[in-house]
Design a protein that fits this description.
alpha+beta
């Protein structure tokens, strides 16, 4: 019995280790402008991202992961950053990986795949609610609705579609996961 448990632990470690090694080392930078018991308003600067929206979520992740793994015009491996975001654009779900801050529009490698593109995510003010648990549609919808309701109560104007942001690997225990629902907002300081 001890032998089986040890083998199982070794197997799980070998399965999880390679994935956890690819997880983020840089997070999109922001400044917290206001924080209350439910949400915060953050100010982000412009940032580059790689995005795709032509297939299902798993396929989109794979396409973006292939890009940062060297399937780009310079065959450069690019560190993964956080968060991974999803937002509806033109009727389909778009997934984005933010690119490390060392890149600018002149130095970022061009994608090899026509399904992947480099975009500038416009900076500005974003209202964010943070939650743990699985990154399921129902968990996201619940928190997005809480945030949307609270922003309306506080007369904060929403100017974007809801954005789903995830920070952790699927192997992170649900209670330790960092997920966020966010909206770009019209906020005046």
């Amino acid at each position: 019995m001890k032998f089986l448990k040890l083998n199982f632990l070794i197997f799980c470690t070998l399965l999880i280790l390679p994935y956890s090694m690819i997880m983020a080392n840089e997070e999109a930078k922001y400044e917290v402008i206001i924080k209350n018991e439910l949400y915060e308003i953050r100010k982000y600067l412009n940032r580059l991202a790689v995005e795709t929206s032509r297939a299902g979520i798993d396929s989109n992740f794979r396409k973006l992961f292939n890009y940062i793994s060297g399937r780009n015009d310079t065959q450069e491996k690019i560190a993964m950053t956080t968060p991974v975001t999803q937002v509806e654009k033109n009727g389909s779900m778009t997934m984005q990986f933010y690119l490390p801050s060392k890149f600018n529009s002149d130095t970022v490698p061009k994608p090899s795949s026509t399904d992947v593109s480099i975009v500038n995510i416009e900076g500005g003010y974003y209202a964010v609610i943070r939650y743990s648990g699985r990154a399921s549609d129902s968990n996201f919808t619940k928190h997005k609705e809480i945030l949307e309701k609270e922003l309306k109560i506080n007369n904060v104007t929403i100017i974007s579609a809801p954005i789903r942001a995830t920070y952790d690997s699927p192997f992170t225990l649900p209670m330790n996961r960092r997920n966020e629902a966010m909206f770009k907002v019209d906020y005046q300081q």
